[in-house]
Amino acid sequence: QFLMANKLDTAMWISRLFTVYCSALFVLPLLGLHEAASFYQRALLANALTSALRLHQRLPHFQLSRAFLAQALLEDSCHYLLYSLIFVNSYPVTMSIFPVLLFSLLHAATYTKKVLDARGSNSLPLLRNLLEKLNANQQNILKFIACNEIFLMPATVFMLFSGQGSLLQPFIYYRFLTLRYSSRRNPYCRTLFTELRIVVEHLIMKPSCPVFVRRLCLSSISFISRLAPTVA
Asked: Domains in the chain: how many in total?
């Protein structure tokens, strides 16, 4: 009754569980490397479906207008719909599947707890314990996802020069990264950029750091800072 009363949430729960399943079979290719590539695509397509459903839930009245598009781009679900479309037809990259896997796992765990609560407060205690441990590490998981989002930017450039990516991919991914940096709901991308800058500046200011390395890092920091969007 709980699942039928929340059909859209249930559909997203099922698609997230399927995303976790496909992502796991890509990361751990138990069925062979050829099959792993197909599971990579399935995971991203399932994530695109979940993101589209979530976006519809957040913005139920579609309008073909600039204002609606601007509002949609503020939603995290729109960001990951774009993310899935960027990588679904690209060469499989393990780094790119981790954000999809972990976000799906976190959201599926939250809804699974609601399902267990609907069954009874004492149902499946072992599963409840696992869900509680996952929830306790949520902040670390979100930081790890943000770290993946950041380091995928140079990875897309490397893929381009190695012949495994398209010319447009780094530019589209840069747009995705600016959206994540400006996210209202998830500040972890901004936080990680700040933390990485502090760590790098601390290391290069040590006397043992070569001057040319210090200048290169400072120039890189200045360049990246200029590319960062303004956050209200």
From this structure: 2
